[in-house]
Amino acid sequence: MACLDRNLAGARATAGQSGIAIEVDVADEGSVVHAFAQIGAALGGLDALVTAAGIINTTPFFETTVAQFRQLFDVNVIGSFLSVREGAKHMQSGARICMVASISSYTGGGYVAKGAYATSKGAVLTMMKSCARELGPRGIAVNAVAPGFIDTPFVASAMSDPVRRKVVEAAVGKVGTAEQIAECCAWLVSPAADFVHGSTLIADGGILMR
Mind listing the pLDDT tens digit for each residue in 62-103? Predict the structure, then answer.
C-alpha cells in the first residue's frame, strides 16, 4: 500500500510499517507524476486508487475571490485528474478507482460548504463519469463516493464555533466519521463492487434521500 500526502509524517502513519509514504502536492503536475513513478517502481503496479485529497472553503459568495476559487479547483479538480491520469498508467484490467466528491455536488453548498467548494466537487463528479468512459474499455472501473457532513479535521475550522456546530448538527441529523467513508471507498475498490462502474455512492446519513 502507498499513501500520498503533503503531510509526510501523516502519510507514514497511515501507510504503516508495511506501506510506503510519499510526499506530494496534488495541484502540482510534476509532483504527482514523480509520486506515481515512485509508486510504480516500488509496487510494480496499482490495483486500486482512492483520490481523497481536497480542501474546503467557507467564504460567503460575495466575498469569494478568484484566487480562492482557483485554489479549490487546483486541489479538488486538477488534483483528482492528475492522480487518476498518472495512477491509471500503472493499472491493468480489473483495477478500480474511487474518487471523493461531496453531497455538495448535488446541493450546491449549504450547511458548511459554500458555492465555490460545491462547484469544484460537482466537477469531480462529472470528471468521474468521463474517467469511467475513458478507462472502462481498459477494464478499469471508476466510481465516486459523495460524503455528507463528516466530523474530521477537514472541517474543524469551519465548525470551531459551538453555536454554528449545533445548528449544523441539528440540520444534518447524523454526523459521519472518516472511518465510515473509508469503508465506502474500500468497498468501491474491492471485487465486491465488480458490477459498479461510473456510479456515485452517497454516504450522508440520509440528508439527500435520493
Answer: 999 999 999 999 999 999 999 999 999 999 999 999 999 999
Query: Active-site positions?
Result: 117
CA distance 162 to 168: 10
Dihedral through CA 122, CA 148, CA 71, CA 129, nearest 10? -30
CA 208 to chain centre: 19
Residue with cell 501507510: 15
Report the first-to-last Cα separation within the chain, whole angstroms: 34
Residue range 166-175, pLDDT digits in tens: 766 666 666 7
Low-confidence ranges of the chain (pLDDT < 50): none
**Opening angle at CA 178, ends 39 and 81, nearest 5:** 45
Contacts of 7 (CB under 8 A, 6+ apart): none
All three cell numbers of 128, joined, read: 468521474
Residue 122 Cα to chain centre, angstroms: 12
What sign does the dihedral 160-117-197-48 (CA atoms) show? Answer: negative
Among 125, 141, 130, which Cα is nearest to 48's?
Answer: 141
**Is this model's pTM higher than 0.85 or not?**
yes
Residue 125 and residue 122: Cα distance in Å, rounded? 5
Strands (DSSP E) along 110-199, which ranges? 141-147
Rounded Cα distance between 92 and 134, Å, is 14
- Reference 4, options 45, 38, 43, 41; nearest CA is 38
